[in-house]
UniProtKB/TrEMBL annotation:
Protein name: L-rhamnose isomerase
Cofactor binding note from Swiss-Prot or TrEMBL: Binds 1 Mn(2+) ion per subunit.
UniProt-annotated location(s): Cytoplasm
Record PANTHER family: L-RHAMNOSE ISOMERASE
Pathway assigned in UniProt: Carbohydrate degradation; L-rhamnose degradation; glycerone phosphate from L-rhamnose: step 1/3
Keyword Cytoplasm: yes
Biological classification of the source: Bacteria, Pseudomonadati, Planctomycetota, Planctomycetia, Pirellulales
Gene: rhaA
Enzyme class: isomerase
Major site of localization recorded for this protein: cytoplasm
Reaction(s) catalysed by this chain's protein: L-rhamnopyranose = L-rhamnulose
Length: 430
């Protein structure tokens, strides 16, 4: 018996003594996909072949060699990442990652630009999620899109939103499960606006236009994402939390909670059980703000654990969709995906290994001492042995051994791509 197996058997006994069925927890973990965000692989550049600056408050910092410059490079890098992550996971595409043989503006995109992704995902058993891209475009350069005072600019972005829903619904039909299409717009202002009301009225109206056509929920789920502030929208964001909470409730949309989009002391883990009283489902953008919405790689920190505990303790696994949202160009980009995804799954496993009923019984009985003792003891239970066993039995490296594969890949492939900066380069211009 391997050391991993021996440790697992001991862990299984320890958990069984607490009434936890380790095998059932692992089986549940296998059914929960994480949606990997394509934009970590190339610093949110995409394949439109323009020189448009990212802008809109989004910033990727770092100059690590090996940025994916073509769709083939990005797919290859994703393959490497998925091969180091246990389980079968989704892919979250932004609209600017389509394949364009000729200049195609955002309001003109169609399923033909994403058929290559659909085929690639079908071959690998990944399902797709999608996002309209309301940034990195001349018509977004003044910080306004769907709430723009100019009706022509607003219409351009409405048409982009409509095109994206059509694409997402076709993705959902092709893959046999709903594609989540998440709307985030950067609209806001650097300084205090004189009118906070009109842009919000325009945004609500424009969103209603975008969502006018109904698609089967089995194919498409619409979600909306708020933000507290961004670079250049420090004083006012049109799509605030209150705006989208109200919008999602009244229009029966999914609410997207991004861990970096709230006050630094505010946590999304505490929002899950409240918002799910009123919205049908949630999309999470699991991220890590450091002082601000800095989109750092997700680490195994208290908030990540709390998010996963809330999903499991509430029995919300089928109503909460887990996506990632970070971009770091200061480290190996494939490693960034693997670190963030493995941590997310590890935290989910830890939550699934809790004796949930015992904890909730203690609380209901008023035994708060017992609750605290058990919660603290759980922190040093051997969940790492269960995780290692899950990795081994899934055919992915155990522990930090996956870094060997990353180093070898970097030596063989990424280093040969040369130094890349976190901006568009001439090599990715079609
Ligand atoms: C690429 C963006 O980060 C993403 O679309 C959005 O979800 C966001 O979080 C903007 O801050
Ligand atoms: Mn986000």
């Amino acid at each position: 018996m391997s050391d991993t197996n021996k440790a697992f058997e001991l862990a299984r006994e320890r958990y069984a003594a607490l009434g936890v069925d380790v095998d059932a927890a692992v089986e549940r973990l296998k059914t929960i996909p994480v949606s990997l965000h394509c934009w970590q692989g190339d610093d949110v550049v995409g394949f439109e072949g323009t020189d448009n600056e990212l802008g809109s408050g989004l910033a990727v910092t770092g100059n690590y060699p090996g940025r994916a410059r073509t769709v083939d490079e990005l797919r290859r890098d994703l393959d490497v990442a998925y091969s180091l992550i246990p389980g079968n996971h989704r892919l979250n595409l932004h609209a600017l990652y389509g394949e364009f043989s000729s200049p195609t503006d955002r309001n003109e995109i169609g399923i033909q630009n994403f058929q290559g992704w659909i085929d690639w995902c079908r071959d690998r058993h990944h399902s797709l999620d999608f996002n309209p891209s309301f940034f990195a475009h001349p018509l977004a350069s003044d910080g306004s899109t769907l709430s723009h005072p100019d009706p022509a600019i607003r219409q351009f972005w409405i048409d982009h939103g409509i095109a994206c829903r059509q694409i997402a619904s076709e993705m959902g039909a092709a893959q046999g499960n709903a594609c989540i299409n998440n709307v985030w717009v950067p609209d806001g202002s650097k300084d205090s606006p004189a009118d906070r009301k009109a842009p919000r009225e325009r945004l609500a109206e424009a969103l209603d236009e975008v969502f006018r056509v109904a698609f089967p929920e089995a194919q498409l789920l619409d979600s909306v994402e708020c933000k507290l502030f961004g670079i250049g929208s420090e004083s006012y964001v049109v799509g605030s939390h209150e705006f989208y909470l109200g919008y999602a409730i009244t229009r029966h949309k999914l609410l997207c909670l991004d861990a970096g989009h709230f006050h630094p002391t505010e946590v999304i883990s505490d929002k899950i059980s409240s918002t799910l009283l009123y919205v049908p489902e949630l999309l999470l953008h699991v991220s890590r703000g450091v002082r601000w919405d800095s989109d750092h790689v997700v680490t195994f920190n208290d908030e990540l654990q709390a998010i996963m505990q809330e999903i499991v303790r509430g029995g919300f696994e089928s109503r909460v969709h887990i996506g990632l949202d970070f971009f770091d160009a200061s480290i190996n980009r494939i490693a960034a995906w693997v670190i963030g995804t493995r941590n997310t799954l590890k935290a989910l496993l830890m939550a699934l290994l809790e004796p949930r009923e015992t904890l909730q019984d203690l609380e209901r009985d008023g035994d708060l001492t017992g609750r605290l003792v058990l919660m603290e003891e759980l922190k040093s239970m051997p969940f790492g042995s269960v995780w290692d066993h899950y990795c081994e039995s899934s055919g992915v490296p155990v522990g930090a051994a996956w870094l060997d594969a990353i180093r070898e890949d970097e030596r063989r492939v990424l280093a040969r791509r040369g130094n890349s900066v976190a901006t568009a380069s001439s090599e990715n211009i079609a």
